Amino acid sequence: MNGAPTTVPLPGGGWKVIPPAPGSSPDATRIWLGRMVNGTTSVEEALQIAGRGGAVPARVQQVVKVADAAGAVARCLKAPVVCAAIAAGVAAGAYYFYRKYGVKPDGNGGLVADPGQPQEQHPKYNCGVSPDGKSSFDGTSPEAACKLAIKFYDYDYVDVNGAHRWRVSTLTSCTPTACTFDYSVGSSRPGYPTISDGSTATIPVAQVGTIGLCPAVVNFYDPAYSTPGGPPGPDGLCPTGNYSQPVTVEEAQRRVIVYPPPDDDTALPGALREAVEHGQAVPSTIRTTGPATQTGQPVSTTTTDAKGTSTSTQTPTYSYHYDGDQITYDTTVTTTVINNDGSTSSSSTTTSGPSPDKEPKDPCDLHPERVGCMGLGSPPDDTVKKTQSQLSWQTESLGFGASCPSDLVIQQRTGPAITLTYRDACDTATRLKPLVIAAGALVALLMVTAALRNA
């Protein structure tokens, strides 16, 4: 947040606000919200825009969530040299904020945490409730409970007539079942005698279970982290004074997310301001505000014809729309005509500016159950099952020798035997064998060539 915010023009008209970057030079117009509201805090700065009708005095607000604020403060706590040292009295907000979460710097660029310990249980005594039922007077002893009760009823004030009125009570004795106290009431007023009276009263006391409290812890190595006895921390644990658990920035931040500070808390906004002004970046949501309308400069035109002279005046009015980090506007032009006879007529036209640029919503954010939005997961790492089998085989002769078949002799009933020979066919096949092999090789070569050409 170094300097003031700036703007860039939007297509068709309007402006997009660019927030300032983190830095150690706070702008003079910066206003920090010094408390938590609905889980957020904010910083607001002035922004002068050169509007259509003149300067537009806008305001830019950066809203920071608890989680993001806690992260920036934790980073500042981790780097005390950057965010200044607690001994210097500067940027001490980070130390005191994370102290109640049991986190502090380890002195070597890291963070350490107090692991915590359970609360000690003490008897709980009750000495009544307030008339409106909103306050219960409880303590770890009859004396502690009844001191709260009598203090509730004491008063000391000056009324509208200038009279000083008081009631003062003093606890005198207690038993496990009742406490006795003396009290005096009175009033005084200039010019009038002082009126005073006193009495003794007894209040019943009852033990109503137990109450968890933390013992006092003295840290001899770092006295700043010593704690008196009292209520536990946000996580319900008591400090031990022994910061022995290393934690990351994210782990420290998570402690705040799980147990966020209440609304109206001032510690986190103060620590965030110091962290930002010492260079820590923090995400934020931009909100812009400013005047709703602005009137531009009128333009008059005089026309003279056979009917006389008429005057036409056009007055633009700009209506500004603030949506997050974008500012757009509509233009309404009102035309007023004054005729030569003194009569007037008026008309207006409105031109809408660009709509705010909205990021399209991811369909998977709206319907995560869709098949296309589901994760693919991981393939199974099971190995393919293998089986082993014993196989046996033997060759079979097909009877196809490489020699030419023997001659075939045909016996006739009458006449000599006829001999059929395959010799001529075998000789012809032997001569054609190279040609057949060559033709097959040529066909194979053509097939391979065609396949390579297609590839």
TrEMBL record:
<feature type="transmembrane region" description="Helical">
    <location>
        <begin position="435"/>
        <end position="452"/>
    </location>
</feature>
<keyword id="KW-0812">Transmembrane</keyword>
<feature type="region of interest" description="Disordered">
    <location>
        <begin position="285"/>
        <end position="317"/>
    </location>
</feature>
<keyword id="KW-1133">Transmembrane helix</keyword>
<keyword id="KW-0472">Membrane</keyword>
<feature type="compositionally biased region" description="Low complexity">
    <location>
        <begin position="293"/>
        <end position="317"/>
    </location>
</feature>
<feature type="region of interest" description="Disordered">
    <location>
        <begin position="338"/>
        <end position="365"/>
    </location>
</feature>
<feature type="compositionally biased region" description="Low complexity">
    <location>
        <begin position="338"/>
        <end position="355"/>
    </location>
</feature>
<feature type="compositionally biased region" description="Basic and acidic residues">
    <location>
        <begin position="356"/>
        <end position="365"/>
    </location>
</feature>
<protein>
    <recommendedName>
        <fullName>TspB protein</fullName>
    </recommendedName>
</protein>
